[in-house]
Specification:
By secondary structure, the chain is of the alpha/beta class. Helix content is 42%, strand content 15%. The protein has an 8-stranded parallel sheet with strand order 8-7-6-5-4-3-10-9. Strands 1-2 form a two-stranded antiparallel ribbon. The two termini are 32 Å apart. One of its GO terms (molecular function) is dihydropteroate synthase activity.
Length: 276
């Protein structure tokens, strides 16, 4: 069970987190939902397709992305967040800035998603003060602009696992009520690192916290399938996420909710089927 303020999300089966990027430069859908009305319509569509929760972000964290000033991130995020909270589904906020996180939590955001892995003590303190769960993601350095220069590991799974475990324990000791672990696919990781993490994902699941996986439309999928356009990497994304679910991931962060919902419905039926 994932506790999201006034509600609980049953994690007895995989759940879908619909991505809503309020940015001009995200790798897959940058610029599509900058206008609040378009963003709200997209949020409604994701919910209609079966998203269990939504993840709103107003700063791209793709490799090499430039940072967004605090006030600009707030301007993009907060009006849309306020509107989306009226849809009745839990809302996660994807930000690495405490100033933005605090305003989002004041409005009622249900989950804090920090790609820097709660390295900033202020983020930990905010999650504890507002009583919200937090996603702890692995990135080798807390800067998307330079993270790919640090894609060097002796044993990527062991190193990512150790980081996630340490940050989770630190957050829980500080009063954060619950953590979700995200291996950070593509964040300071090459293809071989992403494949190793996916293949051995059960080692991270074994830490005992819900695990979130986000491979949707990413470069890894393009490298494996030969599909260059991110928006056309749907089938490969579904395949990777079904494998992650089989390994124990319980939240799948996706752009294409409908395709994933249909695939999970078939998977659920086969898992439950008792016939011969």
């Amino acid at each position: 069970m994932l506790w999201l303020r006034d509600r609980a999300l049953d994690l007895s089966k995989p759940r879908l987190m619909g991505i809503l990027n309020l940015t001009p430069d995200s790798f897959s859908d940058g610029g599509l939902y900058l206008e609040p009305e378009k963003a709200l319509q997209r949020a409604k569509a994701l919910v209609a397709e079966g998203a269990d929760l939504l993840d709103l972000g107003a700063e791209s964290t793709r490799p090499g992305a430039a940072p967004v000033p605090v006030e600009e991130e707030k301007r993009r995020l907060l009006p849309v967040l306020e509107a989306v909270l009226e849809l009745g589904v839990p809302v996660s906020v994807d930000t690495r800035k405490p100033e933005v996180a605090e305003e989002a939590l004041k409005l009622g955001a249900h989950l804090l998603n920090d790609v820097t892995g709660l390295r900033d003590e202020r983020m930990v303190a905010l999650a504890a003060r507002y009583g919200v769960a937090a996603v702890v993601m692995h990135m080798p350095v807390p800067d998307p602009a330079t993270m790919m220069a640090h894609a060097r590991y002796q044993d990527v799974v062991a190193e990512v696992k150790a980081f996630l475990q340490a940050q989770a324990e630190r957050a829980l000791r500080a009063g954060v009520p619950q953590v979700v672990l995200d291996p950070g696919f593509g964040f300071g990781k090459l293809l071989e690192h992403n494949l190793a993490l996916l293949k051995r994902l059960e080692e991270i699941v074994a830490l005992g916290h819900p695990v979130l996986v986000g491979l949707s439309r990413k470069r890894t999928i393009g490298e494996l399938t030969g599909v260059e356009a991110p928006r056309e990497r749907v089938i490969g994304s579904v395949a990777a996420h079904l494998y992650a679910a089989l390994k124990g991931a319980r939240i799948l962060r996706v752009h294409d909710v409908k395709a994933h919902r249909e695939a999970l419905a078939v998977w659920d039926a086969l898992s439950a089927f008792q016939g011969g």
